[in-house]
Design a protein that fits this description.
Residues 14-96 form the STAS domain. The protein is α/β, with parallel strands linked by helices and 118 residues long. The chain is built from four helices and five strands. It has helices at 30-41, 60-68, 82-87, 90-93; strands at 6-11, 17-25, 48-58, 73-76, 96-97. Helix 1 runs parallel beside helix 2 (60-68).
């Protein structure tokens, strides 16, 4: 069973426009995402923050809508979307926040390979 798509647009106190996306994004509803993103982009001169942290599934149709707008958006996502956002190249085209696992930020990477206890 799919989770219905929910799109809520708001303004942060600093003036940034945020499009919060909840549910699953696929071919059946990606046009709704595109329309909401375009409307939100028209609300202000800055970039749009697309919050995908509550999205559990994103297919290629939804990904295409994000890629099309990559020069005008920033993305907040959870680790579950990390592989698709990275493999698609989206992380190279726009800022993507929230993919770092807790305790594993850039400065926290181990310098030695992991060795399991004997």
């Amino acid at each position: 069973m799919t989770t219905p798509l929910s799109l809520i647009c708001s303004n942060r106190p600093d003036g940034a426009v945020v499009l919060a996306v909840t549910g699953e994004v696929d071919m059946s509803n990606c046009a709704e995402l595109a329309a909401a993103a375009d409307q939100a982009l028209g609300r202000g001169p800055g970039s749009l923050v697309v919050d995908l942290s509550a999205v559990g599934y994103l297919d290629s149709a939804g990904l295409k809508e994000l890629l099309t707008r990559a020069d005008r958006i920033e993305i907040v996502a959870s680790g579950v979307l990390g592989p698709v956002l990275t493999v698609s190249g989206l992380t190279e085209l726009t800022a993507v926040h929230g993919l770092e696992p807790p305790g594993r930020l850039d400065g926290d990477l181990p310098t030695q390979p992991y060795e399991p206890p004997s």
